[in-house]
Design a protein that fits this description.
Elements (H helix, E strand, L loop, with lengths): L1 E5 L6 H12 L2 E5 L14 E5 L5 H9 L3 E6 L2 H11 L28 H7 L2 H7 L1 H6 L5 E4 H6 L1 H12 L6 H7 L2 H6 L20 H10 L1 H7 L11 H7 L1
Parallel strand pairs: 1-3, 1-4, 2-3, 4-5
């Protein structure tokens, strides 16, 4: 079995990869660019994780080498907040999409309500990163999964996913226990697994900022069927305190 997880960064890609690798005893590869791997010598049982546009190059590679494609969606505002936090601990975010649209240096050690993050979140870098999952979401034969479902309904979500691939042999509870977010947090010094809390953005983005983000990323919200429904009474001082 060959699987490829192709999605926007900070959407739960690594968590999903760990679960699939455990279930199917797959060799794991996490890469930044399609040419980072020699696809012709990969093992027959493997899972590859990459954040990359739905290009003809990558689509051809995956099809010709027998990969089943999965993509995972997460609310784009939660993705942006997660990028903001993660970029403080992981310099390799600069390699996402080969640096398209810039990098994360401008938001290092910033807060969700600061001008630097606003410019980042409404600028070309955020647009490029958030576009990845929507590009794959409605593609033919691509399996879709939501981060929120994986958090709130893990057993049902994993069961449905496994049934789309093969009949499961390992108990869901065993896999989910092995890769619970609580356990994963202790294994990642770069804080790869942070809060894992869907809707966290509502405590960190006041309405004015959230609606501005929604205007810029309206196509992403629409394609992935997410809403912009901020807390109407959230003010900057409270958001800063929550951060």
């Amino acid at each position: 079995m060959r699987l490829a997880i192709v999605s926007t960064p900070r959407s739960g890609n690594t968590w999903l990869r760990y679960i699939l690798a455990k279930r199917y005893s797959l060799e794991q590869y996490a890469i930044h660019r399609p040419n980072d791997l020699d696809w012709g010598i990969l093992p027959e049982n493997c899972v590859v994780q990459i954040h990359w546009h739905k290009s003809m190059e990558l689509s051809t590679i995956l099809e010709s080498h027998g990969f089943r494609v999965l993509t995972i969606a997460r609310h784009p505002f939660d993705v942006l907040i997660s990028i903001l936090h993660f970029s403080m601990f992981e310099p390799q975010t600069a390699y996402w999409l080969d640096g398209e649209g810039g990098g994360e240096s401008s938001i290092f050690n910033k807060s969700p309500t600061c001008p630097e993050f606003y410019l980042y979140a409404t600028g070309p870098r955020a647009k490029a990163l958030l576009s990845v999952t929507p590009e794959w979401w409605n593609a033919e034969n691509v399996l879709r999964i939501r981060y929120e479902d994986l958090v709130f309904q893990p057993s049902e979500t994993i069961k449905t996913l496994f049934q789309s691939l093969r009949t499961p042999e390992v108990a869901f509870s065993e896999i989910l226990e092995s890769f619970s977010l609580d356990k994963l947090r202790t294994s990642a010094p770069n804080q790869h697994f942070w809060k894992g809390c869907p809707g966290l953005w509502k405590s960190l983005l006041p309405p004015k900022i959230a609606y501005a983000f929604a205007e810029v990323h309206s196509e992403v919200l629409s394609t992935l069927d997410y809403k912009c429904d901020p807390k109407v009474d959230l003010v900057n001082t409270i958001a800063e305190a929550a951060w």
